[in-house]
Amino acid sequence: MSAINTRAATPTKDREPGLMHRSLIDRPLQVVSGSGIYLTLADGSRILDGCCGAAVSVIGHGNRQVQEAIMRQYSDVAYVHSMAYTTSSAEELADQLTELSRPFGLTKAYFVCSGSEAMDAAMKLARQYHFENGQPQRRKFVARRQAYHGNTIGAMSVSSNLPRKIPYDGALVLDTVSFVSPAYAYHGQLDGETEEEYADRLVQELDDEFRRVGPETVIAFVAETVGGATAACITAPRGYFRGVRRVCDRYGILLILDEVMCGSGRTGAYFAFEREGDVRPDLLTLGKGLGGGYAPIAGVLVSQRVVNVLKRGTASFVHGHTYQAHPTSCAAALAVQRVIKRDDLVAECLVKGAFLEQRLRSVLGGAKHVGEIRGRGLFLGIEYVRDKASRQSFKPEVKFGKKVHQAAHRRGLAIYPGSGTVDGIHGDHSILAPPLTITEEELEELVRLLKEAYDAAEAQLAL
């Protein structure tokens, strides 16, 4: 059998690629290797990975310990079906995560391949909980605007990322979901309103929505603990999530927190909700940083409250995936979590995040079109505005965030761009989410390149 001609298989400008990329016009750049915080492209240039793709590569690229763990698992067994079998990698990963989450009442872990699958699983668990608890009339979800929870039908239905959702509205979107305001102080907090008053107003809005739709019909409230890609790392006002927990408990409604992007140590605490006070979700989704990009994996952490009801009923979860708890994905994630624990990267993230935020505020805080720098740990967002005094966004056709992104990439820096920040149409932002292993020297380089990129984008406006 002849060898595959890999050169011929590589798309060229003159050849239509067989692979369906996200864009049918623009081609992504080919990466040939990754090491530490850097990616190397086919043309030999290096890119400082300042966003880990989508906040994924928490321990950087090319970690030998993780690679070796993957190969050991492949050598033992690559795949088993979870209906009949389990593996030590899946069991140990679950034990490690529940050791961290058990103090918050989360006692079981369920592993799938993506954050979208994790959200769908959490939604189905929440529905089954009420069904087996004698309340089958609960069929509705309440979520927040300017949030994203995934691409599958259930996850997309509780999301409000308009560009990703509109093509499927009325056909593939559940009509049992309603939305309340995001915890988005930059555009939502009123002049003269204190942080506590803003939190109280948001919680009251949620209570009002529950009562409007009928609290006895609501399955769960779904929220990102720290906002992700849609609105760039928005954080809740003090007391908000404690108030949310109280309102949910008042009506027997479950609380699903989405930490697919902001969890796994990214905000300087392993679970982002730890920094919100006494807030205990009934279901928690994790992903991205869970496997660090070394294998596709995500998961749901399940409270004992939910487990107890299912145990008294069918004693099963009516749901399953072919690649559920995939042995090699679990082995990769377990190795990533061991690196995080061994190198104390969660604590490191808190320190480095404070350093990065301080440097960003010093270097970019006074820039003409930088409206707000926000976030936690190494999960920071920059919102761009046309006018700082009024906080008015650029017109969508200006594509200011994209200009910054392109200018950064030309200088060897990858950042995560976003648009529609404010309402799905208006607003631009960049997200910075480098590996937790990044050094202060490398963070300085990141800030330097970003400042050059911002300056170039601002200069373009004057042309």
For the largest beta sheet, what order do the strands appear in spatially? 4-10-9-8-7-5-6
- Low-confidence segments: 1-11
Structural class computed from helices and strand pairing: alpha/beta
> Averaging pLDDT over every residue, what do you get?
95
Q: How many β-strands, per DSSP?
A: 15
Instruction: Assign a percent range to the helix content.
Output: 25-40%
Amino- and carboxy-terminal Cα gap: 58 Å
Write down the Rg. Answer: 22 Å
Which percent band covers the strand fraction? 15-25%
- Biggest sheet details: 7 strands, mixed
Give an overview in words.
38% of the residues lie in helices and 16% in strands. The chain has 15 helices and 15 strands. The protein has a 7-stranded mixed beta sheet with strand order 4-10-9-8-7-5-6, sandwiched between helices. The protein has a 4-stranded mixed beta sheet with strand order 1-2-3-13. The chain has a 4-stranded antiparallel beta sheet with strand order 11-12-15-14. Strand 11 and strand 12 (379-384) form a beta hairpin. The longest helix has 22 residues, at 440-461. The model is unreliable at 1-11 (pLDDT under 50). It comes from Trichoderma cornu-damae.
